[in-house]
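[step 3/7] inverse_fold.run input=structure_tokens len=245
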């Protein structure tokens, strides 16, 4: 199987990061609707579970923030927190900024365009870093993890929420039918970008999962990496800390 970094949305000669940016710019208007539809709304429960595992961090960086769903939830659930969200896609950020303004949270959440492989922040800048459904889109996962470790303060936590492939042999056939048949069809109808939703199951299948992901987190300089599978294994939450001096 190809490495997830080698799987791209459009299969063109452009670097993966550029293709990911183009894909999310294309589907930004339909992204929230597609998320709710293809997960039957369970994605909200996964985010809430992850936020409940974080404690009470102060300054939070949300990488691959997209339309800001996790940033909004963090602001609502963690009083006094300050959230900075970064994403490659200006289209997604534009949708997110409107949602944040409508929620009256623009004083606590800031969104900006940035590359996860070159974060525009000083070392040890954040108490917590989150990434929801974005790691498989990184052009270089180990480099992205190292960069997040760099800007995380000692003792701070990294939380990754990522889609994953169930291992239960009774569940897996239904999962394959849904992700490889129904979701691309829905994507073609709703977003008019069928390739974006064919890329989705391909990238999920190839992204490091379970112990393979926690090993990468620890290789990046993090410690105490753990994972928790949710909803028959179709989503996994990963937690790790930066070693406190």
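[step 3/7] decode complete -> sequence:
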């Amino acid at each position: 199987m190809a490495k997830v970094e080698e799987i791209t949305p459009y299969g063109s000669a452009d670097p993966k990061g550029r293709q990911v940016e183009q894909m999310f710019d294309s589907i930004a208007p339909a992204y929230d609707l597609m998320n709710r539809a293809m997960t039957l709304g369970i994605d909200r429960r996964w985010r809430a579970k992850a936020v409940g595992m974080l404690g009470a961090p102060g300054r939070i960086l949300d990488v691959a923030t997209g339309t800001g769903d996790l940033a909004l939830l963090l602001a609502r659930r963690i009083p006094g927190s300050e959230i900075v969200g970064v994403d490659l896609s200006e289209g997604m950020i534009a949708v997110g900024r409107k949602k944040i303004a409508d929620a009256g949270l623009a004083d606590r959440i800031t969104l900006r365009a940035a590359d996860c492989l070159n974060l525009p922040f000083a070392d040890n800048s954040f108490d917590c870093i989150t990434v929801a459904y974005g790691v498989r889109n990184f052009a270089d996962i180990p480099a992205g993890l190292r960069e997040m470790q760099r800007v995380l303060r000692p003792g701070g936590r990294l939380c990754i929420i990522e889609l994953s492939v169930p291992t239960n042999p009774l569940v897996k056939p239904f999962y394959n039918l849904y992700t490889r048949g129904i979701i691309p069809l829905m994507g073609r109808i709703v977003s008019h970008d069928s390739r974006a939703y064919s890329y989705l199951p391909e990238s999920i299948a190839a992204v490091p999962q379970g112990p393979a992901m926690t090993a990468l987190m620890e290789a990046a300089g993090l410690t105490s990496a753990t994972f928790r599978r949710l909803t028959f294994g179709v989503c996994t939450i990963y937690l790790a800390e930066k070693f406190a001096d």
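[step 4/7] annotate
Residues 166 and 172 are 6 Å apart (CA to CA).
The mean pLDDT is 93.
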